[in-house]
Amino acid sequence: MRIFDLDKWSETFETLMRNKSRSFLTAFGIFWGLFMFSLLMGGGQGLESLMAKNFEGIAQNSCFLIPGQTTKTYKGLQSGRQWNLRAADAQLLKHRVKGIDLCEPVILGENPTPRYKDKTTYGTVKGVNPEYAAMENPHIIYGRFINQTDCDQERKVCVIGMRVREELFPDTPNPCGKFIELDSIYYEVVGVSNMKSNVGTGGGNSQQTIMLPFTTAQKIYQKGDRADMLVYTAAPGHTVTEIEEAVNTVIKEEHLIAPDDDQALFSINLEKLFQVIDNLFAGIRFLVWLIGIGTLISGTIGVSNIMMVTVKERTTEIGIRRAIGARPSNILWQIMAESMVLTLFAGLLGIVISVLILQGVEMGIAASTGVEAKFQLSFGMALSAFGVLMMLGTLAGVAPSLRALAIKPIEALTDE
Amino acid sequence: MEQTTMIHLDGIHKTYQGAQPLHVLKGISLDIKKGEFVSIMGASGSGKSTLLNILGILDNYDEGEYLLNGVLIKNLSETKAADYRNRMIGFIFQSFNLIPFKNAMENVALPLYYQGVSRRKRNALALEYLERLGLKEWAHHLPSELSGGQKQRVAIARAIIAHPQIILADEPTGALDSKTSEEVMQLLRDLNEKKGMTIVVVTHESGVAYRTHKVIHIKDGIIGKIEENKTMEGQPYLK
Questions:
Q1: What are phi and psi of A310, to 5 degrees?
Q2: What SS3 class is residue A256?
Q3: pTM, two decimal places
Q4: Where are the domains of chain B?
Q5: How far from the centroid of its chain's Cα atoms is residue B19's Cα?
Q6: How large is the ipTM?
Q7: Where, by residue number, does the polypeptide cross the bilayer (chain A) (predicted)?
Q8: Rounded to 10 degrees, what is the CA torsion of A7, A11, A17, A20?
Q9: Homologous superfamily of the B34-61+77-228 domain (CATH)
Q10: pLDDT band, residue A145 (cuts 50/70/90)
């Protein structure tokens, strides 16, 4: 049988076009199925990418350690004692815990009001070492990050977040070399960070963070040898969950905390957090697929069902065709082709419309929040949807064409 | 006129199987020569429609032999049967059986579609046939926009477009008034006389039957008598 016979296609097309309402009703199920399927797919993906934006640039194998209050008496010390981390704990952990990769102390400053000339804004201050960049990618767009010399010489330099730059230097894209004032102390801006994650360590929006050299912050905020937080990552081949326990043990030992006093320190394991989110999205993805495929199948069955009724209704037509010389294969081809063309057309329309809607959503979100989330279907996804569609179209045509084949011309043509 | 045998039936039996087997044709033997204009007449239930179905390769028979223009028609596959119907037989039905969503021209051209004739060629040919039957200006009308007589003329054009060996007409005037019946019968007669077409008309109406050259009476599954009807005149339509 010649599949690429133009005449057969135009015959199919005409039959469909001359029976518009029938074709429309038949096609609608598939249209809706694919429309919903693509929309769900894009929506799920968009949600995921929106969520991922919050964690962008953060090492997923990291863990934050923040001191709290002891809840148990230990070695003659009262419970309810506020203890502090020391900057030196970082070195200690590196030596004593196997599988730890980076371990950096962080100073969390007060929330000063950054000022440049007459402009002020809101910001959070964080004192970090150069290595901190490996844990939370600062996305430096101008200048540089804090370096070792800054720390060694306790320089008054800072790296400002994007929002801070926008507020203080609205007309100067690159404010490096300018001095901003934080709590009556002037710092030279050496870099601008375009970090976007919303889980900035120590709270706060990373766009509004001002980073100082660790030693400078320690001095300015009179921390002595203390650190407000430790951030560590697991070495390749190790997981944070593996080393978390060892880290806590060392810290408890060092700071005279009861080994079983779990509330004395807060350990925020990002790996676990990501795991939870991953699982959540795996669940959503599964649900999306389930619903999507369900919709597709019901659409296909709908098409098949209507085609069945249609074939019944077209008994006479098919009988006439058979009587004047249509072979069984002609009839089979005709019904299959009609089903395929309908499915294809309706399905493509469904994909196109949902793609347009997804594009709109993407643009809407980008315009209103500035976040570029990926809602759009990928080309590969659209292509595979197309493939599935072809298959569904063929499948939907099978039962009706078999029924059409069973029509005997005499039965169809008897007038009684 | 050449007098070769077009249809040769020899002891055709047909029984419909069912709860109560129905022996419809009980040994039909019949020869119809090429270029004859014949009617098969009988009351309803006489087996004439079954005979027509067998002649039209729409139905199988159980016993006997059917030769159509020298070709044995027996136990054909559906595909083969479809091809023979397409090339050898033109059908005319009581209820016209035009495809409602196709216009007159496309209906006429349909047999050629199944022969793989290109669209332009078959439409041109269909127009030619419609013109011959005086329906040129109706070529692009749907069947629903045509009168009964016009519909039957479209059906006749469809029946002859593929140059069949025989035309089988099943109560061709059954749904028409006497005036258009007369026109349709005249048309068939012209086809027979001018084109030498072999035509078999099945009817229960003597008015139709006596407008053919030969009337074959069938009763209870066997052939009663065969009347030559030289004058082609006589009875009016029973309308």
A1: -60, -45
A2: coil
A3: 0.70
A4: 34-61+77-228
A5: 31
A6: 0.90
A7: 24-44, 286-311, 331-357, 377-399
A8: -160
A9: P-loop containing nucleotide triphosphate hydrolases (3.40.50.300)
A10: very high
